[in-house]
Structures are given as C-alpha cells and as structure tokens.
Amino acid sequence: MPARFTDRTVLVTGAGTGLGRAVALAFAAEGAKVVVSGRSAATLDETALLIEALGGTAAVVTADVSRAEDTRRLVRETVETFGGLDVAVNNAGVFRGGASAADFPLEDWHTLLDTNVTGVLHSLQAEIAHMRAHGGGAIVNVSSNLGPHVRIPGVFGYQVSKAAVSAMTRAAALDHIAEGVRINAVSPGASESAMSLRPGETEAERAVRMKDESPLGRISTASEVAAAVLYLASEDAGSVVGADLVIDGGVSA
Ligand SMILES: NC(=O)c1ccc[n+]([C@@H]2O[C@H](COP(=O)([O-])OP(=O)(O)OC[C@H]3O[C@@H](n4cnc5c(N)ncnc54)[C@H](OP(=O)(O)O)[C@@H]3O)[C@@H](O)[C@H]2O)c1
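Above: inputs. Below: predicted complex with NAP.
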C-alpha cells in the first residue's frame, strides 16, 4: 500500500493503549510524524518506542482532554515539534456502565460527559483553530455503535455520551468544511481492547460471548478500526464529510 501520510503531522489522543495505540502505529507505518497524547506518560512512551522501532517518528505530549487549556497546549506543542497539524484523531474516551438511567451515579455521568463529550469539543476547538488558519486538515472522532447506532440496557451514560459525539461530528463537519477542515467519525462496536471486556471477563470468554452478540461472530480487531480511521483521514475520503462509519460486525445493521 502506498504511504498516504508521508511528512504529515498526525495527533492521536488516547494513544497510550488500545485502539489509539493501533491508530498511531498505523499512521506512523504510512509515513506520518505522530504526536501521541493521553494522561499517562508511561503508556505513551511505550507507544512512541513501538513507533520508533518501526522506523517511524513520534513525540509524546501528555494532556487531559477534559481541560481546555491542555488541548490548546497540546496543539501548540504539536505545531512547535513537527511544524504543523494535518490530521487529528479524537480517540480519548472512558467507559462507565452497570447502571440504568434512574440509578446512574452522577459522578460517573460527569466523568463521561467531561471526557467523551466536552473532551472532544475541547480537542475540536483547539485543532480547528489551527487548521482553518493553515490551509485545512482532517479530523476523525472516535464514537461508538453504543448510543448513536444501537442501545442496550444498563449502559446509560456511555450511550448518551457517544450519541453526542456522533451528533457533534455531523454538526461540526457542516460548520467547518467551507474552511477546509473535513470532520468525520468512526463508531466501533466491541473491539480489541480492554474496554470491551466485562468486569472479570477473559479474552477467551469475550470471544464466546461475541459468537452470540455479533452477527459476524467476533470483535473487530484494532487494525480494522485503525484502517477505517486512516481512510477517513486520507485524500481517498476527500469528499466524505460528516460521515459516521460503523465498524461493529453487523450488530447495528
Ligand atoms: N474497545 C471498544 O470495544 C470500543 C468500542 C467503541 C468505542 N470505543 C472507543 O474507542 C476509544 C478508545 O478506547 P479503547 O477501547 O482503546 O480503550 P482504552 O484502552 O481505555 O483507551 C482509552 C484511552 O483514552 C485515554 N484517556 C482517557 N481519559 C482521558 C482524558 N481525560 N484525557 C486524555 N486521554 C484520556 C486513556 O489514557 P490515560 O488514562 O493515560 O489518559 C486511554 O489511553 C474510546 O473513545 C472508546 O470509547 C471503544
């Protein structure tokens, strides 16, 4: 496959683990200079080492997306380090489940909204401010099939937060495409990361559960999710605006 992101600067939030790490590695494998961000320096350093082991280029910037000043500093340091910002992937997110609407703990509600919703807004605002003043760019938000595309009982707050991410993607895409900033989302279903494991569940037990829960019969791999993110960020998707690409093995079909 040709390298679609040679000399492009790509920012990935939540890049220390799971899907974000896979996305960061996939961009680096296609020539991008990648800024990996999250709150924990230790896991981000591991992602950067993996990228460098591939022969890629990475920089670590710690930032908490629930803090607007952190996201502004993140974009500033990205531009200072690599000279620009061409692509941003707003992947940082948290999961809280196990309670119905009436019983949903307000502490979990605020954590979900602060990170998954306000965190994406902070990221968009900082990224768009740079991109629209420097010739445009592409942004991919990581939403979920849970909330915008399918609902299940007992996951109230997370589903509300991700429905907001998908709605925010479409609204922001319309607001900013005329300024050259192309915004889309991916909505994964249960995927290859710790987030899709139920409390105490092993990967083997999750595989058995997915045979019942998914028409495809398995989770999505992290590289399948990453491939969708790279497509939306690439020139191949140059006329794709405000799309929300579901990757869930048919669960919400
Ligand atoms: N795995 C799935 O089945 C699945 C399905 C649908 C959607 N998703 C979405 O995919 C995204 C990635 O999740 P994952 O599965 O890869 O889970 P994960 O391994 O828990 O990754 C989430 C990442 O977000 C970072 N993060 C959390 N809060 C943050 C904050 N306030 N500021 C900055 N970074 C923060 C975490 O790093 P720190 O703790 O170091 O900050 C972590 O690296 C999430 O948005 C999730 O909702 C996942």
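The chain has one domain: 9-194+221-246.
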